[in-house]
Amino acid sequence: MLVLLHSKILKTFYMRITNKLFCLFFLSTGLHISYSQEATATLSPNQIMIGDHMELEVKVKTPPNSTLIFPKIDDEHLGNFRVVEKQKTDTLYSGSQSIIQLKYIVTCFEDSAQIFPSLKFSQGIGDSFATQPIAIQVTSPNIDSTKDITPIKTIVQIPLSKEEIFSYLFVSFILLGFVILLYWLYVRFIRKEALFDREKGNEPPHVVALTALKDTEALQLWQKGNVKTYYDSISDIIRTYLEQRFGLKALEQTTPQILKGIEKLELPEEIFNSIKEMLSLADLAKFAKENPLPETNEQYLKFAYEFVQKTQSVYDSNKRADASLVKKFYAQNEYRLRPQAINQASFKILVTGISIALLTLSIAIMLAYFVPVGILLSFIADKPILFFSIFIILGAAISLFILFIIRSKQSAYLLIFDHDALFIKTNQKRMKWMFSEIMEIKEDKKGNFMLKNKYNEWHTIPKYMEFFEEIKERTEDAIFLEQNK
Predict the structure, then answer these.
(1) What sign for the dihedral angle of Cα 110, 113, 118, 119?
(2) Which of 71, 230, 316, 413 could be bridged to 221 by S-S, CB 3.0 to 4.6 A?
(3) What is the pairing mode between strands 134-139 and 47-49?
(4) In the 8-state DSSP scheme, what is residue 187?
(5) Which residues contact 395 (CB under 8 A, 6 or more apart)?
(6) Mapping DSSP to helix (H, G, I), strand (E, B) and coil, where does residue 163 land?
(7) Is the pLDDT at 293 greater than 70, yes or no?
(8) How far is CA 165 from CA 252, 355, 364, in A?
């Protein structure tokens, strides 16, 4: 009985000792966890002028993978202090602990002594820790009220960062690449007249006439009973040839008027009689409803062929043989710049203008990186899209303005051959160069035709003129005739 009682008492004592040891163990563990978590905050500098910036650094030590509830660090929870910028958050590991670093830029606009509030961190219910409050001295500038008010200091500009400059230059280089592509298209296609020169150049009048006569012959109009259409077609071909070849307004004139104009050309009698008979037959077939014999129809076409061939061969191969015929042949012929040449020049001006605008844009961006440029710098940083747009639109507008001036000048350029002079007409003036006064002719390195008169004045006829070789030939012939009268 005594033994059992003694055993029961020992057992009870042992259980009490064990419970106390466990309580001490958990208590010591809990104290270890709570003391292993801490937070510190520092403000640098601790004395500032009102509105100056301070760097707030908060360090939190905590076991890894623990769940922390961070305090709100913003204008509403910092009293008189204001957050200017939140910087990068870093996490470092040291043994069995992790250190979380928070950095902020803060300021204060209340002078006198200020207390930066404590920042409270928590982990679960009832488990929290906080930083210590920080005393900060904020002072106001000394203002001498006896002196006049001075102007506000100008804004201090700093160059763009490398990241900003590279991003802007990247866009600029992309646009430059687009311009280089346009220039390649110009060199590859436009300069060789493969893009705008879709239509073939005008053929000489005799080639056009002979081709039209062959096409009419192939239609076999009179064989199918279309006699009037047959004579109308050949008559129109010959009239067009007379107009293009000799400057006669044959399409607008009657047969007697045409013959009167041909008489002034002093053509050989055989050729004159041939064209006279041909035009008369055409009038009979068109207006008198004459029904010529098949032999007459064939002879009519033959006369047309011979007239074109003989006049072409006589007056193109040896124009200098008869000065009077040459003068009449040259009368009232006009030449302009080729449309495709004007288009090429226009495209080149646009490409050049846009290239200059983009190059200027790149220089402005790089300048903003190396040198603080005030308004330009703030404009690039605040409104980059607007900055790029203004440069491009301004460059395009200047290019279009220059294009308009040059294109109007080129379109107005006109050469007019008269019996004894060459008229040069532009949108500003009209000059008259007498063939007898032209003392020297030559080509420059670019292939343009240059004229010099007795007054030591030079005029350049561009190589991009319509029928440029014909202009040179006619000018040389006219000067030759004037000098050898």
Answers:
(1) positive
(2) 230
(3) parallel
(4) I
(5) 353, 354, 356, 357, 358, 360
(6) helix
(7) yes
(8) 70, 20, 10
The closest of 176, 281, 297 to 235, measured between CA atoms, is 281
The domain segmentation of the chain, as residue ranges, is 35-139, 205-319, 414-483
Mean pLDDT of 156-179: 67
Residue 432, CB-side half-sphere exposure with 13 Å CA sphere:
5
- How far apart are the C-alpha atoms of 25 and 255, rounded to whole Å? 134
| Phi-psi region at 83: left, alpha or beta (left = phi > 0; alpha = psi -120 to 50) | beta
The first and second tokens of residue 199, run together, are: 């239509």
- What is the dotted CATH code of the domain comprising 414-483? 2.30.29.30
pLDDT at 115 exceeding the cut of 70: yes
pLDDT in tens, 225-237: 888 888 888 888 9
Contact (Cβ atoms closer than 8 angstroms) between residue 253 and residue 261: yes
Q: Is the dihedral of CA 15, 21, 25, 30 positive or negative?
A: positive
Percent of the chain with pLDDT over 90: 10
Residue partners of 384: CB distance under 8 A and separation at least 6 = 168
Query: How many helical (H) and strand (E) elements, i.e. helices and strands, does the chain have?
Result: 12, 17
pTM over 0.85: no
User: 35-139 adopts what CATH topology?
Assistant: Immunoglobulin-like (2.60.40)
What single DSSP character describes residue 189? Answer: I
Collapse the DSSP code of 182 into the 3-class scheme (helix H, G, I; strand E, B; otherwise coil) and give the result: helix
Read off the pLDDT of each residue in 20-28 and give the average, rounded to a whole number: 46
Interatomic CA distance for residues 241 and 248, integer angstroms: 9
